[in-house]
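The aim of this short unit is practical: by the end, you should be able to scan a pair of folded records and say something sensible about each. We start with the first protein, listed as its amino acid sequence and then its structure tokens.
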Amino acid sequence: MAERAVVRRHLRRIAGVVPGTRIGRIRWPRPLPSSPVPWHYWWQAHLLDCMIDAQLRSPERRRAHAIGALVRGVRLHNAGSWLNRYYDDIAWLGLAVQRAGILAGRSGPSALAAITNRLHDGWTEGGGGGIWWRRDDDFKNAPANGPAAILLARDGQSAFAAAIADWMAETLIDPDSGLVRDGVRVASDGSIRAVEPYIYTYCQGVHLGACVELAERDGHHRFTDRAMAIVDAMTHRLADSRGVLPGSGGGDGGLFAGITARYLADAALRMPELAGAATRIVTAGATAVWNGRAEVRGGPVFSAEWGRPAMHPGRGVPETDLSVQLSGWMLLEAAARLQRAG
């Protein structure tokens, strides 16, 4: 039901007419035709990831064609390139294309090569290491480094992935809460000028995801220990008393909690030590978001804040954003994976 609602409302051909393409409309209901339409590259990556989740759950030829069309649509809409200024954007798309495999079509290998090469270029020793958030900037953050580490580990580049994950653990973990802070500002001499202390939900998820990948591939106990520590910190210092993760409004923030649910489900399925705690958070969120849904034309609408009832979509309402609806869909796919696994 979540998939049908998002696909019916948001998935369209580019400009409504370009054959062999799909792209995610960023809002529903649509704004007035005169309103500017921003390009949210990384939302499309998570739309692709959700469609792959659905294909793994219940394979369909129609959806398989739509996955390939969405990959083509992203490149076409992005002026024929897989890349932009933001290292986090391209890492997210790389993860989705990597998961898509042959469904991404002949362009998949070229996309992954371009993205992984650019991620290598983003690493410098300034700030002790790490990948920049975007080119020509002074900021290094968890949302760029976490997905990059996951992608590179899955690509067989474990040494580089481990260096990124170690930098995150050494630089971004808050010593008081054990949670991952947003990032650091790097001075021109390479020293850390300031730490951005904000605790965003998806920073925890990508740190966990990198640790889970490396615990399997690298085998060093530090990654298992870090994965256990971050799930414990999320349980006691981030989730509410029911185990529900907080939301971050609409816009980009709409994706944050859903991303973390994805990597919690991965952790539950791949690390027996985390199965109970990670499953509880995912299940609590899925129960809350489903019980709090709004039923409108075309199916459910999910809340931007899983712990409260959803508002009906409209101008200025976060539930209007594709990001928020993808997050709810992503959460339910994560819960379904855990249920299928028992």
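Turning to the second protein, read its sequence before its tokens, just as you did above.
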Amino acid sequence: MQGKQDGTLRRSPTVTLASLARELGVNVSTVSRALSERPTGVSAATVATVRRAAEQRGYRRNLAARTLRTGRSFTVGMTVARLTDVALASVYGGVDEASIHAGYTTFVANTLDRADLRRRRLDLMLGRQVDGFVLADSHLDGAAIGQLDDLRVPHVLALRGLPGRLSVTTDDLVGGRLVAEHLLGLGHRRIGVVAGDVLASTGEQRTRGFLDTLDEAGVDVPQHRVVPGLFDVRSGVESAAQILATDPDVTAIFATSDAAAIGVMATLRDLGRRIPEDVAVVGYNNLDLAEALPVPLTSVDSRLFDVGTQAMRTLLELIGGGSPGSLSLEPRLVVRASTVP
């Protein structure tokens, strides 16, 4: 905007590809290629000159024109159970970074792990003509996926996977096994499990990998010591209290998320139990806060940001007509003071 002599404002002339081309003395197609995400057929010097001029003149892409030209909206939808969940926020961070590099915008919606809300949020984003979806809230029943199959909308599952579905996950069976091997190596035999959401592949597989490994070692974990719930602090508090009420001699507790592990630690504190001298605690996801806790938390690094980045790249390949395969990233156990003093 510029000021007139009478004090009113007038809008600055709109900067277009054509006006930039005239100013620089090049073809409009040269300017267009130089401003694309992956410039081809243009020298690096020309790209730098065009982009510098575009920035100085305040050029903005005409997204509506690009949509008409390509048939794409250059937006993707992402569903999560709760974006307040730091683990899911980390996955979203990876999705968003990859989308920025590709010139896409991401819409993210909370579904609270409710089937009815999931359908409504998908319908809302479909109404915005998104090019595809990253789904980070899938349940083992696969209820939401059929809707996208019927409409032939490209989609990729992230973090939570389903058999036969295109997904980017962490190998949670291996992650559970790593925790079991660690606790067995420390001599623990009376162990409790805060299993998380057993309708999500993450909760089911982390628990199964853990229990199968203990079973192979001849260590029995009775059902009353395996308590399902959610992946949050409150579930950790309540589940740990339930485990310790039925079996106060437990020497270790595995929680299938760091948030739940923090709840476990709170319960142990309130009961006067020391960590790890009385009860060892292991979490899952290796959030940044795990290392900063008063007793640093041993946790499985599930590479959340990488899961998001790879999920978005996989979706873009699918949107572009490719045939990508599922990815299962390798987890690693990060040992801290909550299991080893």
